[in-house]
């Protein structure tokens, strides 16, 4: 079980809701001392040993080192997600830093979290843009318009939560529904991953070798390295491809011309959104998944710190929505709070929010290095395909974790039928058309699971039983 958790920790911030920590644990309701409550931001008192709470800080030297550790933890997924959608990774990293600073300010520096690229957008972006799977996405502006739409819907939900509380969200998205939607996303993406490694035998071999490297790192790597299976898998696959293609001539060589020509410092390639109704209608429902993710992560951080963060939940949702809108207005991916960084906090017992402000600044600086972006864009297609096989498969597998940890009863026909319909609709890409509007398999599975579960668990259904 420990091994399995180590393997899938890096995905839970994009595709799941950690209900076991969201509802468990005895914690105080304190959110800080009376003195802290008198100012908007904490006063971050110095503490160099033991558990470091959000309103405390390490020495500045330790803050720098620990902040860089959080940069490493978020980097793999924040870079890979835009590559899978054809976005510029430089821009995504830049806006992950900007988004984290937005979050930091709106929650008053009292909730430790890093915002990185959300994997929940991948399937709908690919569907909305017809992205071929490698290189720049020619229809990125259309996707950005849809992501802005998701951010707006997310913001509306956040404002309602701030006004009415979070209970209705938990009723609308119980574990049975959340797990079904997560599984449908992974299954819907599966054909994209397989296609990416199927061009020829060499591509298939590199893709599968990348998969193997990821698995070995996740299971057997020591210490912090075990938390970085995706980025280490990408590096390992890249080096293998370089050896057998550039060195031995078995495949198309990697072209380093763009990398050599890219300057070390320069402006990112910003892109403005365009708004098309079909893309907005397809992508906007991802907001529901982002709410579930953020809810679970805020609850998890509250459980780890031993204090309730419910008072900041509405702010956290609103901050994430605003960060997503800002990112999409400049060419970045939608963002979400990251479980990778929650895992680092759990391992180190350092919850100081200043670490995330520092990590955000480092990410912004990386966003202004075209050389860094060109290096990322040189990753070969089969390596991306191997990463996709693992990531998309783990998204689907995470549904099992949600159901098991929350003891979802599949002897209950309402849960069983909800899951069955959502899985089939997602895997088969069931598309519904209403005049000019089209809902792809992810949207059909999401809305279908929510509506069907509400109907099957309604008082009318109970009376009929």
Automatic annotation (TrEMBL):
InterPro entries according to UniProt: NCS2, Xan_ur_permease
What is its subcellular localisation? Cell membrane
Any GO molecular function: xanthine transmembrane transporter activity
Q: Which UniProt keywords apply?
A: Cell membrane, Membrane, Transmembrane, Transmembrane helix, Transport
**Membrane protein topology class:** Multi-pass membrane protein
PROSITE patterns the record matches: XANTH_URACIL_PERMASE
Pfam families linked to this entry? Xan_ur_permease
Q: Name one GO cellular component term.
A: plasma membrane
Q: Does the keyword Transport apply?
A: yes
Q: What stretches pass through the bilayer?
A: 91-108, 114-133, 140-166, 172-194, 206-224, 230-249, 270-292, 312-338, 350-368, 374-398, 434-456
Family designation: Belongs to the nucleobase:cation symporter-2 (NCS2) (TC 2.A.40) family.
- Name of the protein described by the UniProt record: Pyrimidine permease
Q: Which organism is it from?
A: Bradyrhizobium nitroreducens
């Amino acid at each position: 079980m420990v091994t399995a958790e180590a393997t899938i920790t890096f995905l839970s911030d994009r595709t799941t809701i950690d209900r076991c920590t969201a509802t468990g644990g005895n914690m105080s309701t304190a959110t800080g001392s009376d003195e802290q409550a008198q100012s908007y931001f904490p006063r971050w008192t110095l503490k160099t040993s033991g558990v470091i709470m959000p309103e405390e800080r390490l020495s500045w030297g330790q803050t720098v080192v620990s902040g860089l550790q959080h940069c490493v933890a978020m980097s793999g997924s924040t870079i890979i997600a835009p590559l899978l959608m054809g976005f510029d990774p430089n821009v995504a990293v830049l806006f992950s830093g900007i988004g984290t600073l937005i979050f930091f300010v709106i929650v008053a520096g009292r909730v430790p979290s890093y915002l990185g690229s959300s994997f929940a957008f991948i399937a709908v972006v690919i569907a909305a843009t017809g992205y071929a799977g490698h290189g720049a996405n020619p229809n990125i502006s259309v996707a950005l318009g849809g992501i802005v739409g998701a951010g707006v819907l997310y913001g509306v939900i956040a404002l309602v939560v701030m006004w009415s509380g979070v209970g209705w969200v938990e009723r609308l998205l119980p574990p049975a529904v959340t797990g079904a939607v997560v599984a449908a996303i992974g299954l819907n993406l599966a054909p994209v991953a397989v296609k990416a490694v199927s061009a020829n035998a060499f591509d298939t071999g590199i893709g599968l070798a990348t998969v193997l490297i990821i698995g070995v790192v996740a299971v057997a790597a020591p210490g912090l390295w075990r938390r970085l299976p995706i980025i280490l898998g990408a590096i390992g696959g890249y080096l293998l491809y370089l050896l057998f293609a550039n060195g031995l001539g078995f495949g198309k060589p990697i072209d380093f011309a763009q990398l050599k020509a890219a300057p070390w410092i320069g402006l990112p390639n910003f892109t403005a959104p365009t708004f098309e109704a079909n893309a907005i209608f397809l992508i906007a429902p991802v907001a529901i998944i982002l709410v579930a993710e953020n809810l679970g992560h805020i609850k998890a951080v509250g459980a780890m710190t031993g204090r309730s963060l419910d008072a900041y939940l509405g702010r956290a949702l609103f901050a994430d929505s605003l960060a997503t809108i800002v990112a999409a207005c400049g060419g970045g991916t939608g963002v979400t709070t990251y479980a990778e960084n929650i895992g680092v906090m759990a391992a180190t017992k350092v919850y100081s929010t200043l670490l995330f402000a520092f990590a955000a600044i480092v990410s912004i600086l990386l966003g202004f290095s075209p050389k860094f972006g060109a290096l990322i864009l040189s990753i070969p297609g089969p390596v991306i395909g191997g990463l996709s096989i693992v990531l998309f498969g783990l998204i689907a597998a995470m549904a099992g974790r949600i159901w098991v940890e929350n003891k979802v009863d599949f002897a209950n026909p309402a849960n069983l039928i909800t899951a069955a319909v959502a899985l089939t609709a997602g895997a088969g890409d069931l598309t519904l058309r209403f005049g000019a509007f089209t809902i792809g398999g992810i949207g059909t599975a999401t809305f279908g699971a929510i509506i069907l579960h509400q109907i099957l668990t309604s008082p009318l259904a109970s009376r009929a039983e």
